């Protein structure tokens, strides 16, 4: 009996996961992918519908010539949602994201002056209020995920180091929980790790098991996926690729070393090459997009990018490298230099050549990745998580909430 | 009924895995770790004993004061064994390895001149005959694992490239299967990958989930473990760390690039620094061990080692770095230089500092790793694998087998 309850709970989780990944599915495809019989799937879908997480749609009536019985469609709803927070040097974005990775609302603003933590948290609170405004009163906030351009202590909700925000040992999760009034603390993570996860699940990396997501914001970071799973390292700090000694060893890095890759392909180096003012580093991607043609100095940046990518390929043998942030616009100008350097430096084995792609989720990879980590609690225990989740009507105090008309 | 059969098979596999990992266990510890009741464990152990894979030992009688009932001990036997083959530039080693990773016999010899593939396979055949000579007639050869200092095509049994053996697209698995007369082809793998696996399971990396095994033979390779699982990359080629652009960009590498890490910390660079003759590169480890003190030139090799290790730490955040081959003896002389360079180049976060250790299995890591991949077929299906496995008495043709007296 106890085993049957466990099995049913396990099947419910699996079904919600399938739905979340696909957004919409037919009952017959769920029957096939879960290896259960049709009546069990119908029962489970009924349960998910009762929870408010999905709705069923009868198929359009077809002509008599159509073979077989058309299957019932199952689509996720916006009843349960997460808040995804993307903290960048240039600005803050908060999104309300529903099951299936559906972005229901977003709000953004420039970062507060000096990245003051208190002001940042207050600003995120304002943006959060803005994105839940149109949510149904009885919808449920099931998690908060936050992406940070820095090193986040695993499970601790502490930013250990975010050099470009000048944050050091900042208990951001607790500060945000207090500001948002949520009882379960937000899940913090590195922005490149989140970008990699999102591209794996919903972007350029679907059907790929080994990928590197390179993120160029002001610094350079990487999210690594090996064998379909994130590479975290012992403390969750893996991917600090900007500080690999890929450079020629002459330029000093803000980390204290010389010759870090970031000194060659970081925003400062690129701004230098393209004549972008040094106080506009966070906009170097936009600056690259607005160029009429590549200045000659950019070729050496391209070679340095290719040099490091060849090293990554030799070490990790990825199938796909996704270029996030300004690295995408950069690559468009220097693809030939990158490819030439990679060819010269990678081992001469055809199966080692990876695909290089732009993010399938454009500039939302990191935001979607933050939503994915926020959804984990619901996916692990749909019934328990929904029961404990605050309803939209109760968020941020009733007084602050505008009347729903 | 079918489910019960499947469950029993699953439990049998799990029990054999536990035994293989531990070598010897008590029935009561199996009861605890497998979460099954005592009579089920007693039945399963009885089945494993009938298969010949383990024997049970009644505990020594204790005095009346001993609390509780002493548990029955379960120990692996040498009835099922694998052949582990370690192909190096300097020599060949073949071992007969039993369950529990017990090395039952080894035989070795220098590599044939020019690493001729045909001669190499014949030599391995001779060594294999030598190590099975003392095996019981009815014992079973359940697999062959082979470590190669090169890049091995996944599942194909083809050596794509072994630069220091000058092998290129060599169908070694088939050649060995023909020579050994085994119907199932040997499992080939990269030597550093095998070293990493062995250190994870039985060496310095037990209770560690993120480790890098660095192998210094003539070239430099790495085996990566992340989250407890090997990082293979899309084609199984991950870990070609000798060709990361960690060098200062001046020395040409045999791979065609300049500035590969191998040009700075490879055997040729070390031989140069310590005055080892260039035709004795395969013995550079022995040469390092015989030094009375470190020549001053070795300090810069140490700094280059530290520079690359810092890069690895920033990218992968490993808990443990194991220094295999000549890198162990090298590290003993240059530890201070390595540590200083790592401190200067790693991010200044205490949780990022890994432990650096010598291989727990000394010079047998790679050999034991080869045995682990060879045992997989038995661990996946003990009954089926044993039924199909050739008996020692039937190996290599009866005529070639010396009489057992």
TrEMBL record, chains A, B:
Gene3D superfamilies: 3.30.420.40, Winged helix-like DNA-binding domain superfamily/Winged helix DNA-binding domain
GO MF annotations, alphabetized: kinase activity
Pfam family, one: ROK
Species whose genome carries this gene: Mycolicibacterium litorale
Protein name per the record: Sugar kinase
The keyword Kinase is annotated on this UniProt entry: yes
Family as reported in the entry's similarity comment: Belongs to the ROK (NagC/XylR) family.
Alphabetical UniProt keywords: Kinase, Transferase
Leader peptide range in chain numbering: none
InterPro entries per record: ATPase_NBD, ROK, WH-like_DNA-bd_sf
């Amino acid at each position: 009996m106890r085993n049957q309850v466990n099995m049913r709970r396990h099947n419910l989780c699996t079904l919600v996961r399938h739905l979340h990944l696909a957004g919409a599915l037919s009952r017959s495809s769920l029957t096939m992918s879960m290896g259960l019989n049709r009546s069990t799937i119908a029962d489970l879908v009924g349960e998910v519908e009762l929870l408010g997480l999905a709705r069923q749609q009868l198929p359009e009536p077809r002509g008599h010539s159509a073979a077989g019985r058309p299957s019932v469609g199952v689509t996720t709803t916006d009843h349960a949602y997460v808040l995804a927070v993307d903290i960048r040097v240039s600005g803050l974005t908060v999104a309300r994201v529903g099951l299936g990775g559906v972005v229901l609302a977003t709000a953004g603003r420039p970062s507060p002056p000096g990245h003051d933590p208190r002001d940042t948290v207050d600003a995120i609170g304002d943006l959060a209020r803005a994105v839940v405004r149109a949510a149904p009163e009885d919808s449920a906030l099931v998690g908060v995920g936050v992406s940070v351009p820095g090193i986040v202590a695993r499970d601790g909700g502490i930013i250990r180091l975010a050099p470009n925000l000048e944050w050091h040992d900042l208990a951001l999760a607790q500060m945000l929980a207090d500001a948002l009034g949520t009882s379960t603390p937000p899940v913090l993570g590195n922005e490149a790790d989140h970008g990699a996860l999102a591209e794996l699940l919903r972007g350029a990396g679907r059907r790929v098991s080994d990928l590197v997501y390179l993120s160029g914001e002001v610094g350079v970071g990487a999210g690594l996926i090996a064998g379909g799973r994130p590479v975290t390292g012992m403390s969750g700090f893996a991917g600090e690729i900007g500080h690999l000694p890929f450079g020629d060893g002459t330029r000093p890095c803000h980390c204290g070393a010389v010759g870090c890759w970031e000194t060659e392909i970081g925003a400062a180096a690129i701004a230098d090459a393209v004549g972008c003012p040094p106080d506009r580093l966070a906009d170097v991607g936009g600056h690259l997009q607005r160029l009429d043609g590549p200045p000659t100095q950019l070729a050496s940046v391209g070679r340095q990018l290719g040099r490091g990518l060849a090293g990554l390929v030799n070490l990790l043998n990825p199938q796909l490298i996704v270029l996030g942030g300004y690295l995408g616009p950069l690559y468009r100008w220097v693809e030939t230099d990158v490819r030439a350097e990679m060819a010269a430096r990678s081992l001469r084995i055809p199966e080692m050549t990876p695909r290089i792609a732009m993010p399938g989720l454009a500039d939302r990879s990191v935001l979607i990745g933050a939503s994915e980590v926020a959804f984990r609690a619901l996916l692990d225990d749909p019934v328990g998580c929904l029961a404990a989740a605050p309803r939209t009507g109760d968020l941020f105090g009733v007084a602050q909430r505008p009347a729903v008309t």
